[in-house]
Amino acid sequence: MTALIAPIPPIAPLPAAPAAGGTAAAGTGDSFSSSISNALDQVQQSQNTASTAEAQAAAGQGSVTDAMIDATQASLDTQVTVALLDKGVSAFTDIMNMTF
């Protein structure tokens, strides 16, 4: 039997709202940057897994089916990452073009 594609992990809950006197931006930079870093690490791990599976299949040590599944998952992860990056750049551009 071939390995199934791993399910999408649940999204972590947002941190609690700051106290009435606190600012919303305080401390969110670290959590945002760590979230982005973790997401990029997961994409890199997915690509590494696909590369390893492809090398094993080429050497006759692994399943071609598993290699194709891993490659498709890595491709999908990369496409989603690029789409999110494009949306982020577009939003930044829109904000920068606003006149006040």
Task: Give a verbal description of the structure.
By secondary structure, the chain is mainly α. It has a domain at 63-100. It has helices spanning 28-58, 64-96. The longest helix has 33 residues, at 64-96. It starts with 27 loop residues before the first helix and ends with a helix.
Low-confidence stretches: none
How far do the termini sit from each other? 61 Å
Could you say which structural class the secondary elements and strand pairing correspond to? Answer: mainly alpha
Helix fraction? Answer: 55-70%
User: Globular, elongated, flat, extended or rod-shaped: what is the shape?
Assistant: elongated
User: What is the rounded Rg?
Assistant: 19 Å
Sketch the major β-sheet: none
Order of helices and strands: HH
Care to count the β-strands? 0
Q: What is the count of helical runs? A: 2
